[in-house]
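User: Can you help me understand a structure? I only have the sequence.
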Amino acid sequence: MPRDRVKLAEIAQKHWTRAGEQIVWAVERKGHIGSAGKAPHAVVTAVPEASIAEPEWPLPTAAVSSGRFSNDEWAHDPAVWGWAHARGPEQISVRWADLFTAGRDECWLLLSNQRLALVVEGEVLAPGGGGLFSRSREPQPEPLVTWWEAPVGAARRFVAVPLGRQVEPEWFVRIEFADGSAFDFRDPQAEQSVRTAHANL
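Assistant: Let's start by predicting it. Here is the structure, written out as tokens:
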């Protein structure tokens, strides 16, 4: 999988978009996800099977992994990249947390002027094997496989939020969904990312 969001965005623009659709964001997961008062997130819905190696990310602190923190203090743990806020497992942010967890660092968030989606590169899910001769006869995987998508209207708002309880906040982008749930992801340039979204939607 490309570790470069620009390269991933180029692949998405060429192979994934529809007529008139433009990629706005390609966001890479860069750490653990929390939910229900602690991190890492525990998967609660069915997810695609994927043999993806666990990234060598540091574990969240003991306070965050056990839920012994107040309000949004989890944001100060650099091992935590995202957080799902929801009332129940049927909401979108929980589904995102489940799929990001299953896809590990190979699951990307795409925002276009038409859709929100979580995607994984096809060759990660179906790597070729058996040498050049056998691979030449096998169908090539799709460049990107969509695990979840919805019209961009599924997101009610994109907001840059300063989190934590220190003088210098930790900046996150918050996607507020129409179902009342929300998903935060760490982004030091959150304000610019949100401006970019607003300018292109």
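Now, to help you interpret it: The radius of gyration is 17 Å. The first helix runs from residue 5 to 15. Let me know which part you'd like to focus on.
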